[in-house]
Amino acid sequence: MIFDNIETKRLILRLITIADTQDFFELDSNPKVHLFLGNNPVKTIEQSEAMIANILQQYKTNGLGRLAIIEKSTNEFVGWAGLKLEEKLRKEFSYYDLGYRLKEQFWGKGYATEAASASLEYGFNTLKLEEIGAAADVNHIASNTILKKVGMQPSGTFEYEGDLCNWYIIKQ
Fold it and tell me: How many angstroms separate the CA atoms of 116 and 61, rounded?
């Protein structure tokens, strides 16, 4: 997959590589990160390797996938963000999904909003997508706030694995 990094004021969004495994493990082994994601943090580095392998396969199969978020000033791995073709979350249809996940020490700094906004711009301007969706647990105040802040429109709710989620869409 040919991809030019996406740069924002404070961040670089780049392709994820196997070299990000330790950072993925640090991110996804934190129970607080998984509070609204089914409360199932990873327990082994192998689980993080499998997640990265899945993302690398998405790059090959779909020509897009989540991107690593790097803080420009420190070159630190903040988390991931971006778009992917989602085929499991909404049982009734597939869609292009906006998502993000950050290490706890980067919460509350506006990075998720900045990365989400850049991801939407990339999806519409570069990939020429017509519509992008997103979901957030109804109780996840921060994520719901971010989705609204970047222009996503609330479009009802749905249930996923027993949790009620808000559904959002934005059109080109």
Answer: 22
Burial class from Cβ neighbours inside 10 Å (0-12, 13-18, 19+) for residue 22 reads exposed
Q: What angle do CA 166, 170, 171 make, to 5 degrees?
A: 150
**Cα-to-chain-centroid distance, residue 92:** 21
Count of beta carbons in the 10 Å neighbourhood of residue 160: 14
The C-alpha atoms of residue 66 and residue 85 are separated, in whole angstroms, by 10
Helices (H), 20-110: 21-28, 45-62
pTM, 2 dp: 0.94
pLDDT digits (tens, 9 = 90+) for 29-88: 998 987 777 767 899 999 999 999 999 999 999 999 999 999 999 999 999 999 999 998
Q: Give the separation between CA 99 and CA 96, rounded to whole angstroms.
A: 10
